[in-house]
């Protein structure tokens, strides 16, 4: 098996003493952008990976229904260069989010938190710890003194009823903090969604969000056709989502790695600038990092949605 040595998060919180009451230890974290929708999340003792896509520049990702898209940029890291991982957050099972390199190179004992359909497919491929979540259900990963609660959020990859031809997709709320205390950071990952009505429930359930990772690009099918069906947010919808969920900061990703994208990052930049939201956006190049910061006093976490815990490796 190639790839990084497994770290393997525990499925339930460790019985370790916490910091003194009233003076919680502030954990530190970062996001490292690898390319497309692939991001390394480091926070305290935990390291997570999102939507692993490690195809090389010039290779094709297969999207189903006879469609494929060519990669235009090299990922910043290879699988062999990854640090030890504790788990994977997968928005959906498409060839530009979980590719053949990931299938061959990632440790099959890693927990993968994803949709029910993707989890079934991954277990068939011997990723035995893939966990499927329904919308608003959650899964908890713990490593050492750090916990991540991952809640599945609404998302839809295409307009009705065409969405049935594409894989189900989920957004994710990743709440990071000490294993024995409240979360210190809330990270919203949009997944490959359009701006649909169901997203309005997110700020009602999570009124404070520290950071967002927005999947943009204005993906159109058939591949890259300017008059094709749009299946991910373009610059305008991305700005709409920023106004809707109101994260303190947001980083746009998933916008220039493949020929399937039709809405460049400049479209989002212009739109948020026009709306006076430019100071809420943090841009990062592949290989670059963004600091993860939370509020000094975290808000209470909504009641768990009843999701199954991710099994330990």
Automatic annotation (TrEMBL):
- Coiled-coil positions are none
Q: Tell me which residues make up the Metallo-beta-lactamase domain.
A: 68-255
- Biased-composition ranges, Pro residues, are 297-313
**A Pfam family this chain is assigned to:** Lactamase_B_2
- Which residue stretches belong to region Disordered? 1-29, 288-313
Report the PANTHER family cross-referenced here.
METALLO-BETA-LACTAMASE DOMAIN-CONTAINING PROTEIN, UPF0173 METAL-DEPENDENT HYDROLASE MJ1163-RELATED
State the name under which the record lists this protein.
Answer: Metallo-beta-lactamase domain-containing protein
Q: Which organism is it from?
A: Nakamurella endophytica
Lineage, uppermost ranks: Bacteria, Bacillati, Actinomycetota, Actinomycetes, Nakamurellales
């Amino acid at each position: 098996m190639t790839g990084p040595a497994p770290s393997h998060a525990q499925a339930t919180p460790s019985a370790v003493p916490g910091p003194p009451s009233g003076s919680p230890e502030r954990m530190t974290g970062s996001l490292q952008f690898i390319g497309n929708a692939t991001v390394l999340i480091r926070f305290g003792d935990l390291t997570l990976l999102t939507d692993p896509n490690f195809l090389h520049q010039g290779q094709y990702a297969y999207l189903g229904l006879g469609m494929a898209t060519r990669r235009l940029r090299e990922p910043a890291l290879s699988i062999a260069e990854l640090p030890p991982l504790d788990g994977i957050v997968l928005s959906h099972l498409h060839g530009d989010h979980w590719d053949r390199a990931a299938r061959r190179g990632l440790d099959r004992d890693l927990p993968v938190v994803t949709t029910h359909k993707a989890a079934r497919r991954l277990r068939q491929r011997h990723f035995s710890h893939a966990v499927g979540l329904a919308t608003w259900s959650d899964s908890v990963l713990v490593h050492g003194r750090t916990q991540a609660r991952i809640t599945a959020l609404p998302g839809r990859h295409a307009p009705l009823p065409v969405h049935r031809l594409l894989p189900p997709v989920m957004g994710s709320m990743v709440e990071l903090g000490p294993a024995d205390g409240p979360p210190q950071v809330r990270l919203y990952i949009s997944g490959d969604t359009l701006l649909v009505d169901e997203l309005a429930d997110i700020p009602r359930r999570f009124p404070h969000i520290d950071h967002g990772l927005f999947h943009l690009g204005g993906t159109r099918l058939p591949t890259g056709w300017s008059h094709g069906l749009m299946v991910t947010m373009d610059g305008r919808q991305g700005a709409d989502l920023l106004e809707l969920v109101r994260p303190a900061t947001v980083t746009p990703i998933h916008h220039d790695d493949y020929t399937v994208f039709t809405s460049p990052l400049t479209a989002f930049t212009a739109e948020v600038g026009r709306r006076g939201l430019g100071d809420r956006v943090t841009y990062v190049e592949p290989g670059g990092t963004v600091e993860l910061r939370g509020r000094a006093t975290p808000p209470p976490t909504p009641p768990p949605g009843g999701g199954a815990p991710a099994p330990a490796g």
